[in-house]
Design goal:
single chain, mainly alpha, globular
Length: 179
């Protein structure tokens, strides 16, 4: 573990001191993979830490390159953060993380070349409703779900992102059973 930590520190130093966008994205992707594996084993605090390091790196890459697609990577780390915080029962922070993800996705899809991210935006809005529900803010959650579940379905159909089909089914079940 110590050798791994040293390698990561050296990698981060090179990325930040030399502004290497490609390497930054690769290192951030490694952090995401680590965070997902930690979360799968129930280590949400550590997953959060690894994910947050990826978030910093993606933001640095966005700052250096200005590449619009990198906004989707930042949004992903914000969404992952919200999920990990939800598992830790920290729903206020989860809402904040989703708000940040939503802001990046809204900015991204304002460019027609990235309209395919509408499904992710709708999914994040629905996840925000889940977090609001957990905070006892059920009326806000209902309004969000009423607005965004149909938009989610439409976005899946328009973009062909069938990988989000399970999330959509979960939302439909939740909205019909909890409300």
């Amino acid at each position: 573990r110590e050798v791994y930590s040293q390698a990561v520190d050296i990698g981060e130093h090179l990325v930040f001191s030399e502004g290497r966008t490609h390497e930054t994205i690769n290192l951030a992707g490694a952090y995401i993979n680590v965070s997902v594996n930690l979360a799968l084993s129930g280590n949400y605090e550590e997953a959060l830490e690894s994910n947050d390091r990826a978030n910093v790196l993606f933001k640095k890459s966005l700052e250096i390159s200005g590449e619009p697609i990198v906004k989707s990577y930042v949004a992903l780390t914000c969404k992952n953060r919200a999920g990990y915080l939800g598992h830790l029962q920290r729903f206020d922070e989860a809402v904040q993380a989703l708000d940040e993800s939503i802001a990046y996705l809204e900015e991204l899809i304002s460019d027609p070349a990235f309209a395919s991210f509408k499904a992710e935006l709708a999914n994040d809005q629905c996840d925000r409703a889940f977090a609001l529900f957990e905070l006892g803010r059920r009326d806000e959650a209902r309004v969000l779900l009423k607005e965004w579940i149909p938009k989610f379905r439409q976005a899946i159909d328009e973009t062909g992102k069938t990988g989000l089909e399970e999330d959509f089914k979960r939302l439909k079940e939740f909205s019909s059973s909890e409300f």
